[in-house]
Amino acid sequence: MTDGAWKIRAAGDGDVARLRDWAVAMALETEHKALDPETVEAGIRAVLAESRRGAYFVAEHGGEPAGTLMLTYEWSDWRNGDWWWIQSVYVDPAFRRRGCYAALYRHVLERAKATPEVCGLRLYVERDNAIAQKTYEGLGMVDAGYRMYEAPTR
What PROSITE patterns does UniProt report for this protein, alphabetically (predicted)? Predict the structure, then answer.
């Protein structure tokens, strides 16, 4: 899909190194977490190898990769459909505030609307990331009113 100057495409094996580097950069920038690049790369390859786990999309501008997002899936018995979760969002600093994420979002939103089994899109955002929250709200997303809890096992 093209969105103005943006071209959105499914990621492939040739994107793994860039996706890995972007994921590592995003974790450091947003959560101050240093991820193990080998583990991240294995995780990306696992998604690319098994579509049931998710999908990566890459936004290009002028043929240059500029940003990415990953979708994962969650079944909702309440809605008898899948929520598509937007995760691993990263926009290269050179392309920020230029519509890259909006183009990625519109792409997955249109795909979701065209897929009857999908009941909607969701994402989580750091509590203090006001810039991201404003971006998501500007695209029509609303705060779902949940807090996220976890119990890591590794």
Answer: GNAT
CA distance 47 to 57: 12
Whole-model pTM over 0.85: yes
Give the model confidence (pLDDT) of 90-146 as tens digits: 999 999 999 999 999 999 999 999 999 999 999 999 888 899 899 999 999 999 999
Q: Where exactly are the structural domains of the chain?
A: 2-138
| Cα gap 19→67, rounded to integer Å | 9
Instruction: Concatenate the DSSP letters of all residues of 86-152 into one string.
Output: EEEEEE-GGGTTTTHHHHHHHHHHHHHHT-TTEEEEEE---TT-HHHHHHHHHTT------------
Q: Does domain 2-138 have CATH number 3.40.630.30?
A: yes
Residue 128, token pair as written in the block: 């203090």
